[in-house]
Amino acid sequence: SLVVTTATGRGINVIDFLALDQKSVTMENIAKFFKREDSSWRSIQQIIIDKDFVEWRVLDKAFPDAKVLLCQFHVLTYWRKICKRDKLSMKVTKRDTMESAFAKRIN
């Protein structure tokens, strides 16, 4: 789904799609379809995505005036996963401190 956020912070679904894969050519075709069907696409200022870097490259190219950002939830989830790795041997208190500091930086 592509969801837009209004000035009041309300999210509105603008297109639903079902993709067979997440290859760049598929994502490019979805972006082209959206741009063809919605002439207001030029007013998009920001795009928030999960951690899919193929999607990031496609959207960055398709919407050159918009800023592509990573979803804070996905960033924090990934950070927690990294901090729990055995090779870091990080104690829980240290991990919590690091997570708190990281969360403050991305807010």
From TrEMBL:
Domain ZSWIM1/3 RNaseH-like, chain residue ranges per copy: 1-69
Pfam families: ZSWIM1-3_RNaseH-like
Record-given protein name: ZSWIM1/3 RNaseH-like domain-containing protein
Organism annotation: Phytophthora nicotianae (Potato buckeye rot agent)
Lineage: Eukaryota, Sar, Stramenopiles, Oomycota, Peronosporomycetes
